[in-house]
Amino acid sequence: MTRERNADSDITLDHLYAIKIIEEVHAKGGKVKEFYSYCGGLPAPEHAKNPLGFKFSWSPRGCLVSQHNSAHFLSANKEITISRNDLMGIAKPYFVLDGYEFVAYPNRDSVPFIEYYGIPEAETVIRGSLRYTGNPAFVKALIDLGWLDTEPKEWLKTNLTWAQVFQKAIGTNDPSESTLTSRVNEICHFPTKAENTRILSGLHWIGLFSSNPATIRGHNLLDTLCAQLEKQLSYQPRERDLVILQHKFVVEWQDGNKETSTSTLELYGDVDGYSAMAKSVGVTCGIAAQLVLEGHEAFRTPGVVAPYRREMCDAIRELLEKEGITLVEKIVAD
Fold first, then answer.
1. What is the structure's pLDDT at 11?
2. Mean pLDDT of all residues in 210-225
3. From the CB of residue 293, how many other CB atoms can be counted at a distance below 10 Å?
4. CA distances from 257 to 24, 30, 35, 333 (A)
């Protein structure tokens, strides 16, 4: 029995086109010297007008925890590790397509993909995530202020207001707005006055300064914050999402010339139909399951099989393209 793993948007679609381009480059005698792959499941820009520039189509906890992991990648032949508390601070502007303002940061461990993708010649390999500008800085503030802490707190009781929870989280003498604001400024060290104003405004928007009763969940700050964010940042009827994915390859050819190319997916959800995330995940998974059940020759290896082989990737990709889900390939520099 064959079972395929990793059938989701930022992994399987990633693999399908990464393997395709890499093997095409190798067949022509080229070397992939640098490989970058960034993906984001985001609200469409018109629905991202909130302090996080984000909405949750699944667990807020899972989304926030994913932004509080360490990262490990290869850069200029050096293995780099970024701690979980520093990750959001290294997010940088990243161009994908005109009309968007993204920032990118590495996601978990990219180094094994040197082997998975068969690119031992690579000097840089980074796989990561995309967010709208401002999101990582806001999440970093939440981290610095303790809101992503998963440790149980004995003092986290149901009779507290949000301001009182905030007071205890950051260690102030009282829950007044002025005292909380002063302590936030001490902890966060905002780089500019504008950033100070933006993030403080966002913390107010979430309700962390309010005298309303806090919704306590799990007796920890992360789950308590998520209970609030679920109310404010869930998708509403007729709001659409966006899956954005881009590979970037820097290739060195046999004559020594270098060429940079991209492979990009821009997929929007339908306001009266499926979300982009549902389409990219569901259709991909459905096709993989269909090919296994039909006994396709590329899926006859018994056991749990990761989709890193060209014949498997091609079989899924060709059917995906018939469903209108495809990455656009482009040479951007040579």
1. 41
2. 95
3. 10
4. 17, 10, 17, 11
- Report pTM: 0.92
Catalytic residue check, 10: yes
- What percent of the chain stands above pLDDT 70? 96
Q: Is 50 helix (H, G, I), strand (E, B) or coil?
A: coil
Cα(277)–Cα(290) distance, integer angstroms? 19
Task: Say what the pLDDT of residue 135 is.
Answer: 97
Determine the Cα–Cα distance for residues 190 and 276; give it in Å rounded to an integer: 35
Instruction: Tell me which of 63-67, 115-119, 292-296 is least confident.
Output: 292-296
In angstroms, how far is CA 286 from the centroid of its own chain?
A: 23
Backbone angles phi, psi at 152, to 5 degrees: -60, 145
Coil, strand or helix at 26:
helix
Q: What is the per-residue burial (b if ≥16 Cβ within 10 Å, else e) of 241-259?
A: bbbbbbbbbbbbeeeeeee
Contacts of range 209-215, beta carbons closer than 8 Å, 24 or more positions apart: 209/162, 209/163, 209/166, 209/177, 209/180, 210/161, 210/162, 210/163, 211/161, 211/162, 211/163, 212/161, 212/162, 213/158, 213/159, 213/160, 213/161, 213/162, 214/158, 214/160, 214/161, 214/162, 214/164, 214/165
Tens of pLDDT, residue by residue over 136-159, are 999 999 999 999 999 999 999 889
Catalytic choice (8, 10, 14, 334)? 10
Contact 54, 42 (CB under 8 A): yes
Task: Give how far Cα 199 sits from Cα of 84, 136, 172, 192, 203, Å.
Answer: 21, 11, 19, 11, 6
For the chain, the average pLDDT equals 92
Query: pLDDT tens, 256-270?
Result: 999 999 999 999 999
Matching residue, tokens 């010297």:
33
